[in-house]
Amino acid sequence: MNAIKTAFDETGRWICRLRLQRKGPDAKGATSRRSDSPLRPTRYTSFFGLALLLLAVMLTACSTRKMTVRAVSDVMANGVAAFEEDDDLDLIEKALPANIKLLEALLESDPQNRQLLVLLARLYASYSFAFVDGRIEAAELTDLPPDTAGLSVAKMKKRAVRYYRKGNEYALRALEIRHPEARGQLADPSNAGSFMRELDRDEMPALFWYGFTLSADINYNRDSISAVGQGHLVEKAMQRVIEADEAYFYGGAHLVLLVYYGSRSPLMGGKPELAIEHYRRIEQINGKGYYLDDLYYARYVLYQQQDRSQFTAVLNRILRDPATEERFRLYNRIAADRARIYLGAADRLFID
Question: Is 199 helix (H, G, I), strand (E, B) or coil?
């Protein structure tokens, strides 16, 4: 109950900032539902308040616990999208951990709840991506004092890996609900590809977060042969997501493959032409108002090409052109913050 109380308190601070009235559906809403966009307007955080209130009242009746957990998890699945249209990173960073612990408390009462497992995979990955990764890059690429709460960069990396591995484990557990053999199949290089091809569209969220978290783990462990050897799983997972539901998470599978193919030189197995194809496809899915694709196109493809002029132009465009679509606000804020980091590190990244 302590986790529930903490989450309730944190969510209450959010609700105080909201208008409680919700706008009607529009065409953009239909698109967001189709692609399962990661987050929705801040005003939707009222869903969290409702979920937590239901939880606090109803979990006291043990006979209805599992039914209540599933009802609340439905509300949370809708409400978790509330973070995206708010670009107040400080507030989001404070709110997310309490909601993660709430979901874990719910999962204790219903460990086979696939929806909760996917939500936890997503939130652990999103938290590390949004708040831990950026601090690590700033500390490594610039001369600014690292904002790491007194932790060394090495400890921050361990924290990031821990969060990504937690997310990966939840994603695997979600896949195992319908496919008990999933862990063994994915561990077998000869069977992993065929297993993924058999997964249907409903399994794509779990598969995406499995691949996303694994990709991040590999990135932090490039000196490990066993870690790098799992790169084929990332590639296969994202290719399957693209086949089944390429718009999921704003075309996130394309973004992962953009980084996967673009972050290495051709001599080390990089495929810049494929990275560019995925970059262009993200733009076709989202339009020109989504900046994470521009950010990583500059950071990896243009960096590998040592095209400083275009690198600078793309990153400055992220900072110069305000985002017009509310659904991209959080990720565009992250893109802008990291664009500043990369621009500040240009002298280190490029050889004159």
Answer: coil
Q: How far is CA 66 from CA 50, 59, 114, in A?
A: 17, 9, 13
Q: Which two tokens stand for residue 214?
A: 């694994």
Radius of gyration of the chain (CA): 20
Each residue's pLDDT tens digit, 125-161: 999 999 999 999 999 998 766 666 678 889 999 999 9
CB 304 within 8 A of CB 272: yes
CA distance 52 to 6: 10
Give the residue from 127, 123, 105, 115 showing the smallest Cα distance to 4: 105
- In the chain, what are the domains? 1-111 (no CATH), 139-242 (no CATH), 246-352 (1.25.40.920)
**Rounded distance between C-alpha atoms, residue 229 and residue 309, angstroms:** 34
Cα-Cα-Cα-Cα dihedral sign, residues 159, 162, 167, 168: positive
DSSP H helices, 80-203, are: 89-109, 114-127, 133-141, 153-178, 182-187, 189-198
User: Angle 251-253-257 (CA atoms, 0-180°, nearest 5)?
Assistant: 120
Query: What does DSSP assign to residue 326?
Result: G
Q: Which long-range contacts (CB under 8 A, 24 or more apart) does 307-311 make?
A: 308/346, 308/350, 311/342, 311/346, 311/349, 311/350
Q: Are 255 and 292 in contact (CB under 8 A)?
A: yes
The candidate with the shortest Cα–Cα distance to 80, out of 30, 128, 39, 114, is 39
Q: Count of residues for the chain?
A: 352
Instruction: DSSP for 19-65, please give it.
Output: ----PPP-HHHHHHHHHT-S---GGGGHHHHHHHHHHHHHTT-GGGH
pTM: 0.83
Q: For 234-246, how does the pLDDT look when each residue is reduced to its tens digit (9 = 90+)?
A: 999 999 999 999 9
User: How distant is the alpha carbon of residue 80 from its chain centre?
Assistant: 12
Contact 153, 132 (CB under 8 A): no
